[in-house]
Amino acid sequence: MDQDPPEHRENRQKLSSTTFRPTSTFQAAKLERECKKNWDLFYKRNKTNFFRDRNWTTREFTDLMLLDKTKTLLEVGCGVGNFIFPLMETCEAQYFYACDFSPEAVKLLKMNPLYNENVIKAFTCDITTDEIQNTIQDNSIDIVTVIFVLSAIHPDKFRKVMENLWRVLKPNGVVLFRDYGVNDMTQWRFRDVSRISENFYARQDGTRTYFFSDDETKRMFEEVGFRTRENGYVHRQTVNFKENVDVKRTFVQGIYEKS
Questions:
Q1: What are the residues whose beta carbons fall under 8 Å from the beta carbon of 171, sequence distance 6 or more?
Q2: What is the pLDDT of residues 108-149, one digit of tens each?
Q3: pTM of the model
Q4: Which string of DSSP letters, residue by residue, matches the chain?
Q5: Has residue 23 got a pLDDT over 70?
Q6: CA 181 – CA 212 distance, rounded (Å)
Q7: Is pLDDT at 6 greater than 90 in this prediction?
Q8: Beta pairing partners, 247
Q9: How far is Cα of residue 51 from the mean position of the Cα atoms in its chain?
């Protein structure tokens, strides 16, 4: 895992000390009420064309290469299948589960020619509630992936998500996590009026995003009983020579085990 560069720590301190103009309480509550609707509209607009396939996941998370016919995997926040379908072409499992908050996303995923309920079941689920229990039994999953998902959820509901991940995992099962880190360049691009609360912002389309620190992420998992195997910042640089764009990215990545 990458070390946090000094300049990032300095920028993080500046960010934490900046006075923001928060989004109104009314608007923040409206965004929460309309969260599902806004994500459905996002997928209706973009269909399957917005996100690239996540072919990097088996390189970053070698646990995925240990999947075999004895193991089950659950992807939380599956979107339209940019992670699960490339993974199914690389790895075998006893069964794959994939859930998403957005019914529109799940509908698009099921339209993929690779979708076959003999090997994968996709379903709509609000992971911040007890809905997951309608489909997934407690202590039944070997690997849960939560990749760029938790950031779209209100921070007040993080604890419930952690508890649900704990419930569905078998003993010694693992959560593979990656999400946006504090000081990621996209955080600096948000206007002050987009800030809902600390490190939590609203996009123009009504969806939201949160930026995590590594300490915060570690604490969230450990507070419900997980043992931290890996936890830290991942720094990447996105270069688009055609558009002369050089963007520094900061993510938080971790592996957490149910002991």
A1: 139, 258, 259
A2: 999 999 999 999 999 999 999 999 999 999 999 999 999 999
A3: 0.88
A4: -B---HHHHHHHHHHHHPPP-PPPHHHHHHHHHTHHHHHHHHHHHHTT-SSPP-TTHHHH-GGGGG--TT-EEEEES-TTSTTHHHHHHH---SEEEEEES-HHHHHHHHTSTT--TTTEEEEE--TTTTGGGGTS-TT-EEEEEEES-GGGS-GGGHHHHHHHHHHHEEEEEEEEEEEEBTT-HHHHHS-GGGEEETTEEE-TTS-EEE-B-HHHHHHHHHHTTEEEEEEEEEEEEEEETTTTEEEEEEEEEEEEEE-
A5: no
A6: 5
A7: no
A8: 238
A9: 13
Mean residue pLDDT of the chain comes to 90
Q: Which residue has the tokens 């996105």?
A: 238
Question: Residue 157 burial by CB count (10 A; 0-12/13-18/19+): exposed, middle or buried?
Answer: middle
Whether 46 shows a pLDDT value over 90: the answer reads no
